[in-house]
């Protein structure tokens, strides 16, 4: 567990170690099957896998990069027609199109297991069943790492979490735990997931009211709480930017007074959250059909 946090070279060596990742996954599967999700060694295994999933997309061996990203590059090079708004419209179009996902192997080995749906379901199971904060945080953190990039792999993992494995209810429960870093990691994961336009309606329906509920109404007491608040605002920004329906959902959850209060707090420690809230307010105002509701 300590060695897995020793930097990129350490991660590379451990990912390449024959049988190591497979053994960790095998052990966790055993403890889940035996209904022992709070086992200390399971916590250690999950923390190692969490660390090995960090920067995974950028640190993948070239053989995997060629296999996973070749289709993506072919699509990108064939679609170079500029739209009315130049590069921005191309980016939106690229973001919204179906990114080709390589067929998942039925029997993954080694580094392939790190983004496989089997391990994603294991993380979600531990989030739902374990009461150990470190196990919860590491499971959420591994999913956060795997959904952090913009390529086919993070996109596929996000789809699995939200649509195939029905992971949102378990993640939503983590928003209401008392442990601040577990809550912060759950929000960061939701922020990553909310970047996928095809998943935004599902995410808003499942967690938007909960995100508004855990927004603070007054000045925060810690850096962690401030970062969590900023992440919530950016998640709400992603969910409402292109959806008047989701903006109305935020309004009906009484989110506007909280966001205004956060945006107006100019203390140094709170500035990150204040900026995020201001960005969210600016975006919400772009829904002109809601102006009269906002004013009320």
TrEMBL record:
Cited SMART domains: ARM
One Pfam family linked to the record: Arm
Keywords recorded for this protein, A-Z: Cell adhesion, Cell junction, Repeat
Main location: other
TM segment ranges: none
GO CC, one annotated term: adherens junction
Record has Acetylation as a keyword: no
Localization per record: Cell junction
Bias-annotated ranges (Basic and acidic residues): 94-106
Region listing for Disordered, in residue ranges: 79-106
GO biological process terms, semicolon-separated: cell-cell adhesion; desmosome organization; heart development; intermediate filament bundle assembly; protein localization to plasma membrane
Signal sequence segment: none
Keyword set includes Repeat: yes
PANTHER family noted in UniProt: PLAKOPHILIN-2, PLAKOPHILLIN-RELATED
Protein family membership: Belongs to the beta-catenin family.
Protein name per the record: PKP2 protein
Organism: Caloenas nicobarica (Nicobar pigeon)
Originating gene: Pkp2
């Amino acid at each position: 567990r300590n060695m897995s946090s020793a930097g990129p070279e350490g991660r590379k060596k451990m990912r390449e170690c024959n049988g190591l990742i497979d053994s960790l996954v095998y052990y966790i599967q055993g403890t889940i099957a035996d209904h022992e999700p709070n086992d200390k060694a399971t916590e250690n295994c999950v923390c190692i896998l969490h660390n090995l999933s960090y920067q995974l997309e950028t640190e993948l061996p070239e053989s995997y990069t060629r296999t996973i990203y070749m289709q993506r590059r072919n699509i990108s090079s064939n679609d170079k027609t500029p739209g009315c708004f130049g590069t921005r419209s191309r980016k939106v179009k690229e973001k919204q199109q179906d990114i080709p996902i390589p067929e998942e192997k039925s029997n993954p080995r080694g580094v392939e297991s790190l983004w496989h749906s089997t391990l994603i379901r294991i993380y979600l199971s531990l989030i739902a069943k374990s009461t150990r904060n470190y196990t919860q945080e590491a499971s959420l953190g591994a999913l956060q790492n795997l959904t952090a990039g913009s390529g086919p792999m993070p996109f596929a993992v996000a789809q699995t979490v939200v649509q195939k494995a029905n992971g949102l209810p378990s993640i939503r429960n983590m928003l209401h735990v008392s442990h601040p870093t577990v809550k912060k990691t759950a929000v960061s994961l939701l922020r990553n997931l909310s970047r996928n336009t095809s998943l935004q309606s599902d995410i808003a329906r499942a967690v938007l009211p909960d995100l508004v509920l855990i927004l603070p109404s007054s000045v925060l007491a810690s850096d962690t709480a401030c970062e969590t608040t900023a992440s919530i605002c950016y998640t709400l920004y992603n969910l409402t930017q292109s959806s008047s329906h989701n903006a109305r959902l935020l309004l009906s959850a009484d989110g506007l007074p909280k966001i205004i209060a956060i945006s107006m707090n100019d203390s140094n420690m709170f500035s990150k959250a204040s900026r995020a809230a201001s960005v969210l307010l600016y975006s919400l105002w772009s829904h002109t059909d809601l102006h009269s509701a906002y004013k009320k």
